[in-house]
UniProtKB/TrEMBL annotation:
Family assignment from sequence similarity: Belongs to the D-isomer specific 2-hydroxyacid dehydrogenase family.
InterPro entries the UniProt entry points to: D-isomer_2-hydroxyacid_DH (IPR050223), D-isomer_2_OHA_DH_cat_dom (IPR006139), D-isomer_DH_CS (IPR029753), D-isomer_DH_CS1 (IPR029752), D-isomer_DH_NAD-bd (IPR006140), NAD(P)-bd_dom_sf (IPR036291)
Protein name, UniProt field: D-3-phosphoglycerate dehydrogenase
Protein source organism: Purpureocillium lilacinum
Signal peptide location: none
Keywords: Oxidoreductase
D-isomer specific 2-hydroxyacid dehydrogenase catalytic domain: residues covered: 7-314
Limits of the D-isomer specific 2-hydroxyacid dehydrogenase NAD-binding domain: 107-287
Domain of life: Eukaryota
Annotated coiled-coil segments of the chain: none
Amino acid sequence: MSAKKTVCVLDPYHKDAVALLQSEPDLEVVPPDDPRKSHWREIADGILVRSETRITAEDLNAASRLQVVVKQGVGVDNIDLDAAKERGVAVHNTPALNSEAVAELSLALALSLSRRVTELDRRIRGGERVVRSNALGMSLFRKTVGVVGMGNIGRAAARKWIGACEASVIGYDPVAPDGIWPDIPHKRVASLDELLRTADVVTLHVPLMQSTRGLIGARELTLMRDNAILINAARGGIVDEAALLRELRQGRLWGAVLDAVEEEPPTLEKHHDFLKLDNVIMTPHIGGSTMENQSESGQAAARTLMAVLRGETSIGGKLV
């Protein structure tokens, strides 16, 4: 970097990522707790964001110095990519790095729901004397798991389900190439409907796009098997939440685990109808929130940003 450039970290990043940026002598780093952060549109050559911050066309038009936006994680629906392209601002993400952590959480949530872990914990904490014979869970051993989205996270999820539960895996992805999982025993189906009719567990691992918004709606939910479990550890908006609430109230499905909802973070005020149900577990979009992953993916985002500002062109995770 020939002249010193300013990087603003707009959302909380792991201390290792901030330290890596600060180790670069040609960078002026504005960390998340610095009041100068609010002036990023005037001062930033590069910014690091997460899902919390939306980067709009108005922001990009006002940011005359901005060269690059790097988003930690995969989804970039909080960034106006068309406006970035028009302004010549590069946009990068950190694909694949969250895969193991998100897959791990999706498995943990499903098992917690099937064995009624959080429900029984709440009841005991509330002073109830739980009778074991009245608190039977459902085993997921050797059940059929439908993986919607056969990318990096879906692949990691399939491996975990097979390893932990000896699951039979069904994969569905309308755009993934043939033979994408050569090393994973699975059956690939041609339609989402077929997967929904067959799977005991449906786990969603697709980005939020126009084609995936409302992917699981009222019709799709009625296709799911009795006592099936739905997992959304991807993005809010993929599931029609009103339709899901109606279906869950009927008690035909075993339940749903939601790490992603349309209004985040989930709160008792906004999601009280879901949270009144024992067959629901909600978490605040923490799929990638492990200490190890936050350090690794945060540093990857920082390295990508520094590479772009140095003028390097062969960089992974490029969107625009």
